[in-house]
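tool_call: predict_structure(chain=1)
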Amino acid sequence: MEYGNGLNEVYKPPANVPSFANIIFVHGLFGDPLKTWTGVRNKRSKSPSGHASVATAEGQRETTPGATASQQTTPTAEPGRLSIFDSQGHPNKLFWPKELLPSTLPNVCIYSWGYDADIGKFMSSAGLNTLYRHAQNLLNDLAALQDSNKDHPLPFIFVAHSLGGLVVKDALNQSTETGNKRLKEIVSATLGICFLGTPHRGSQSASLGRKIFRITEVLAAQRANTQLLQTLEKNSETLERITKSFYETLRTHERLHIFSFCEEKEVRKLGFLSAVIVYPDSAQVGYGNEEIGSIPANHSNMVKFGSPKDPGFIKVAGVLKRWVKEIQDESI
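tool_result:
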């Protein structure tokens, strides 16, 4: 399974199941539309069939009641159901937007949006887009998605990690400010944003990160996109612009729900140092009816869930389920 830049379709309900929303996942700095949201599978988690999976020397296989060991085979996805194995047969990894979320929300379309936010690439030059252009690309991709469903355009719900939250905010700002009717409809169609470790006010770790990646840039003789990393610095002009514009976006679109999660644990750096990447005060938008919570993991792992019983998954899925129910109730 490989996802690239732009919108990657993760899940669509079967034809006989109505769809009520588009859930869009947006990764953060150094992120990936697949790996960012992939956790280590909890061996006690269950497959979609409800049978516990077991670990063997060759990996995990789904247990079929009454079958012998020689009859246990790697399952394939049935129509409308998901396999506990990905397309490459890696049973220890769990891409939860595909493997867990549809069980909780079977009536939504799920997409993972990718963009080049890998500043420290060694094999190829990082994309030289600014955050504004990434947001512009996201906005255009969302408009194209709505164009493809003109008969039944769906509301948007975003799940954004770290820098991805800034991209989403700026995309909605551009939608608010544009005179283009097609693009302007995107913010009006947005019900909610679930921010996960987004540095709304900058990150104390950004300056250290910029120094480290300046070293990798020199060693690799590559041009790194330092503009994206500078965006995360405390009191960044870009952050100030996005924040002020987003307050106006929220003021003019009162229906837009915000839930901001912060990390509870530190990330270990250089083998012995540790630090919180985005502190709680920075992880909050600080406006109106924003809801605030925390996830018991560090900045990277707060979006990697390995089981439907993972506390982080329960919290995030609960928020999404509540918002989708609101859309369903309005459609009655």
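agent: Residues 47-87 have pLDDT under 50 and may be disordered. Proceeding to next step.
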